[in-house]
Amino acid sequence: MLVAVARVELVMAQSKDETETRNKAIVTAAFDAWAAGTGSPYDLLVDDASWTIVGNAAVSGTYPTRQAFVSTVIRPFNARMRERLKPSIRQMYADGESVVIFFDAQGVARDGKPYANTYAWFFDMRDGKVVKASALFDTVTFNDFWYHVSPDLTK
Asked: The domain containing residue 76 runs over which residues?
């Protein structure tokens, strides 16, 4: 009986390790594409993925779908940028279907000033896709950018 339990635990551990390795690779590839300007981590979101922005940012709250999040936060953010945001991962952790990404991102706002912030994103993944996300970042820096840079409404 002890041998059977040990085998089950070994298979579960291998499966968990494989899931973590796969999810980290998927998220890393999405961040690499974002940095290269050929994709984004938002491509990983399922249609009904919820995204929560924690804290006191102008956009803090929970968005119940990918579309709600992208249209309310990401498009207006990008419309305030002259040079797109480029991420640089500091650290990434995975535990089963959860992935935590700690990263810096910087770009240039439409007013010519640099925008730089540090983020921590928490992804809950299923089958290689993000089903739920939470984000933390410096809300003072974000709010200054959001309120003082006018979006290009043609974007």
From this structure: 2-148
